[in-house]
Specification:
Layout (H helix, E strand, L loop, with lengths): L2 H16 L7 H7 L3 H18 L3 H4 E3 L2 E2 L4 H12 L1 H18 L8 H25 L11 H26 L10 H38 L1
Antiparallel strand pairs: 1-2
Length: 221
């Protein structure tokens, strides 16, 4: 660890102690708890959906089931990068909740289809992360992971998730727009969903990255 990194870590702990965040080590205990990835994954996903489907929906809704951009996609990418499979499981739990709360069209589908959609939302990121890491020879610690690698994860997860979701949407006809056999319309909706997922994911990740860099810079001054 470099001298600057050590100093930044000490400052972060001093700031946390100043506000009582590390009193009785409860903060560290919470972070190390085995249930934390599930809780944080589900909570962050639900909150992102609330923002997407509440204040932002009038501006971002494209058609039922497709948002441009879809910001929760960035949460699922972040969850698997930080927590791995446990983070994806948390997203799965959160997906079941948000479908019930914010996606009434999907509630007309069978329980199996709803479960498949939740699994697609959650585990597409984990599967594509493992695929990219295996192809790029990146260890499980994610040491050496670059922005380019993350971009590949985002693109492949968007392709996989959108394909599975669109298959369910058309199979269950969750909205009249999916009750057609027009190939061009189907491809258009699929490409819109891929684009929305990729844009939303990269927007969230880049915003957090820039924010973290600014925070680190301020701590080192």
């Amino acid at each position: 660890m470099s001298k600057q990194s050590a100093v930044a870590k000490v400052r972060s702990r001093e700031t946390a102690n100043q506000y009582g965040l590390l009193d009785k080590d409860w903060f560290e205990l919470m972070l190390n708890d085995s249930m934390t990835p599930y809780f944080l994954g589900a909570t962050a996903w639900i909150f992102a959906w609330w923002l997407q489907m509440g204040p932002f929906r009038p501006f971002l809704n494209f058609v039922p089931g497709i948002e441009l951009p879809f910001f929760p996609a960035g949460i699922r990418t972040l969850a698997v990068l930080i927590f791995g499979f446990s983070g994806a499981a948390g997203i799965f739990i959160g997906s079941l909740v948000t479908y019930f709360l914010y996606f009434p069209e999907l509630m007309t589908a069978s329980p199996l289809s709803v479960t498949v959609c939740a699994a697609a939302s959650a585990f597409s990121s984990y599967l594509t992360m493992r695929l990219v890491c295996d192809l790029r020879k990146i260890p499980s610690s994610l040491a050496g992971l670059t922005l380019g690698n993350i971009s590949w994860i985002v693109v492949t997860q968007s392709l996989l998730s959108a394909t599975l979701h669109q298959f369910i949407y058309h199979s269950e006809i969750i909205s009249p727009i999916y009750d057609n056999t027009n190939i061009s319309a189907t491809l258009f909706n699929w490409s819109a969903m891929v684009t929305g997922d990729a844009l939303g994911s990269m927007t969230v990740l880049l915003t957090l990255l820039i924010g973290f860099q600014l925070f680190t810079k301020s701590q080192n001054q």
